[in-house]
Amino acid sequence: MELAAEVFALLVAVAFLAGTVDAMAGGGGLLTIPAMLAAGLPPVPALATGKLMSTLGTGSAVIAYARAGHVNLRAFAGPVAAAFGGSAAGAITVQHIDPTFLAALVPLLLIAMALYFWLAPPMGDVDRKARLGRVGLSAVCGLIGFYDGFFGPGTGSFLTLALVALGGLGLVRAIANTKLINLATNLSALAAMIAGGHVLWVLGLAMAAANVAGNQLGAFLAIRHGGRGVRPLLVVVSLAMTARLLADPANPLWQLWPG
């Protein structure tokens, strides 16, 4: 598929902005997927190309956080493996089950998450006592991974919430290890998209290069400013994703609204 030069350049610029936001709070797909659809890409190639971009961008964010000492691969090997398997299972399941009910549930979950980050006591960079052990946290990450393969929006934010509220991590470390787990879910989904031949490689690699640069900037800002800058951004991103989902007149929630 050929795109006009100015459209191609605009998508690359959006990928950079999305990478910056994604490295700090998740939700980069909120920018890139609508932009690609608006440019005329069919839904499946847009999602597949977005997975290529986000896989490379998220991988670069993991490297940046790891260099700063915020990623613990050994401690999170279980959650990573569970999320990878869950994402693969979700991608298979969605081919046989209508995910419409999730379109109604997810906006409510995102609003609840925004309220948690807004109203919860101050979150520093110091870890606290975990409410779940490794097995329990792996099970939660496996479920979120399944959700990512099955539906997707808000996965990074849900993982961050789980690591903060249940895993006891400080906010920056939670985001850093969220990137590690999210990389596993992206790799699983990308493998399925490549096998199906849906990835637009030229556009995807160009957007990935910009997304990598954006992720490096976002990781730098998160590490430098810590929870002070990240927490408000998590609230804004969660509410923006909610608005984006509810903007669709076909969202099942509108069918439940009186009148």
Automatic annotation (TrEMBL):
One GO cellular component, as annotated: plasma membrane
Record bears the keyword Transport: yes
UniProt keyword Membrane present: yes
Origin: domain of life: Bacteria
Predominant place of localization: membrane
Membrane-spanning ranges: 47-66, 73-94, 100-120, 132-150, 156-175, 187-210
Topological relation to the membrane, as annotated: Multi-pass membrane protein
Location within or outside the cell: Cell membrane
Keyword list, A-Z: Cell membrane, Membrane, Transmembrane, Transmembrane helix, Transport
Stated family: Belongs to the 4-toluene sulfonate uptake permease (TSUP) (TC 2.A.102) family.
UniProt name for this protein: Probable membrane transporter protein
Record organism: Croceibacterium mercuriale
